Amino acid sequence: MTFNAGIIGTGLALPKKVLTNHDLEKFLDTSDEWISSRTGIRQRTIASDGENNSGFATTAAKMALQNAGIGADDIDILIVATVSGDMPLPATACLVQSELGAENAAAFDISAACSGFIYGLTIAQSYIKTGMASNVLLVGSEVLSRWVNWEDRTT
Questions:
Q1: What whole-number distance in Å separates Cα of residue 146 and Cα of residue 70?
Q2: Other C-beta atoms within 10 Å of 144: how many?
Q3: What per-residue confidence (pLDDT) applies to 116?
Q4: Full-prediction pTM beyond 0.85?
Q5: Distance CA 37, CA 55 (A)
């Protein structure tokens, strides 16, 4: 028997701090026009001290669950797609699982950089379509702003 998979809820969380191209102009040899014409980016959000990956992931997950009309107990598998977890161990998904109280869910991270969320969709769909899970919570969460040297124009 094959089951259908679909997205039934979404959520999001963003850092409070915003860094615009005009902000970068103040300390880098660059301009808003140069950045936006090459990347389409005009601003980005930056994780501040005290903000972490698992916190953003948990906030987004809670919103997605509410949007879907299901509870943490309904989650069979919790996947977090990230290359910038809070720490090497435990997996960020385990931290989110604990915060949500998703005691019945298997939890793991996948590390596939830019394609991580798409890869996670494929994994989630496979669990659903094979009947191994009814509800998979997939969260894509990154805090790569911590790894950027904001004073290096080539970054």
A1: 33
A2: 14
A3: 94
A4: yes
A5: 33
